[in-house]
């Protein structure tokens, strides 16, 4: 993963710099996360969406206001998108450990 | 779930299900509010006047003019899922041929709870005439105040708030001098 640190310190020029920026943007758009992160994201999405549905209905019913219901629901969906969609470092803490390459001559 | 697109897909799939459940719950919740508002409908006078049918100059027809008083408190009908109320006064009678008629003679749209206290001395907004062109020998009519509740989410519901205590007879034709 290319970091901003690398971009700032190495100070590549011209075409090289554009290539690095492109790669960074590509990573941002792909937003790849590891398997543990995927599991975590799925749980967060399920729990948040279902509980916010129930909570917004109950609060709106208690206050007798549909505005409250759909306001809370929309707000929680926006927050959920911010939490879950980008590839935050939390979701990349368990990278896949590949086995070492076997030496062909010994086998 | 490994890329951002897969996550968007997964989230929006569950989101649409949750939204449908929420809308369904809101629609069902309005069934919990069962109120029967009462209204007083009094017909002050009915006049029957001869005239010409609009489209056919030579066809003579009778028109009824109704003055009525309506007092009602429809505020209980406003709950969290009520967008607006449509209320109307209709005349119900069975004519000589035995056909049951319901003629809407006045209506109003109530958008706010504050406007749902009704105290009106009104007359018919819409032309009230008989299909057989004459009100002679037509049995007395009942005048009712009915309403439709238009919800934000859910089904349109009908209701009757009140009606005249006794049917009101149509008078003889009143000649305009």
UniProtKB/TrEMBL annotation, chain A:
Record's keyword annotation contains Endoplasmic reticulum: yes
Gene Ontology biological process terms from the UniProt entry: protein targeting to ER; signal peptide processing
Protein topology in the membrane: Multi-pass membrane protein
Superkingdom classification of source: Eukaryota
Membrane-spanning segments: 44-63, 70-88
GO cellular component, one term: signal peptidase complex
Pfam families per UniProt: SPC12
Keyword check for Ribosomal protein: no
Keywords: Endoplasmic reticulum, Membrane, Transmembrane, Transmembrane helix
Stored InterPro entries: Spc1/SPCS1 (IPR009542)
Subcellular location: Endoplasmic reticulum membrane
Function: Component of the signal peptidase complex (SPC) which catalyzes the cleavage of N-terminal signal sequences from nascent proteins as they are translocated into the lumen of the endoplasmic reticulum. Dispensable for SPC enzymatic activity.
Family that this chain belongs to: Belongs to the SPCS1 family.
Protein name, as recorded: Signal peptidase complex subunit 1
TrEMBL record, chain B:
Its membrane topology: Single-pass type II membrane protein
Domain of life of the source: Eukaryota
Pfam assignment, any one: SPC22
Keywords: Endoplasmic reticulum, Membrane, Signal-anchor, Transmembrane, Transmembrane helix
Stored InterPro entries: SPC3
GO CC entries: signal peptidase complex
A biological process from GO: signal peptide processing
Compartments, record wording: Endoplasmic reticulum membrane
Protein family (similarity comment): Belongs to the SPCS3 family.
Function: Essential component of the signal peptidase complex (SPC) which catalyzes the cleavage of N-terminal signal sequences from nascent proteins as they are translocated into the lumen of the endoplasmic reticulum. Essential for the SPC catalytic activity, possibly by stabilizing and positioning the active center of the complex close to the lumenal surface. Essential for viability.
Protein name as catalogued: Signal peptidase subunit 3
Organism: Sparassis crispa
